[in-house]
Amino acid sequence: MKDPFELLPSAPEFEPKEEVKTATKKRNFLPLALGVFGLALVIMGYFSISRKSVSADVESVPGAKISFSGLPESVAIGDEIGTTVSVQATSALKDAGVQVFSDAFDMSKTASLNSNLKEGQVGYARVLTQEEILSLPKDINKGIYVYLGDLDKDQTRSEQLSLKSLPINSDLATLYVRVVIGKKVQYNCGFLGMAVCTKISGAEFIAQDATSIHTRKTVTIITKPGYNFMTMPYVFTQSAADEFLANMKVKWASIYSTKDADYVDLLKSGNSSMIKPGVGFWIYDEKGGSYPLPKDKVEVNYNDPFSLTLEQGWNQIGNPYARRIIFSGDKILVKEVSDDGSPTGAIYSLQSAIQSGALSSFSVVQNKPFVDSNSQQNDIAKLIEYKTLALESTVDPYTAMVVNSTKKLNLIFPAKEIIASGDLLDDKEKQQIQDWIATSGLNQYSDPQNTVYSNGTPLINPSTNQIIDQYDYIISKHPDRPWKEST
Question: Could you say which of 257, 283, 301, 400 would form a disulfide bridge with 253 (CB–CB 3.0 to 4.6 Å)?
Answer without folding.
Answer: 283
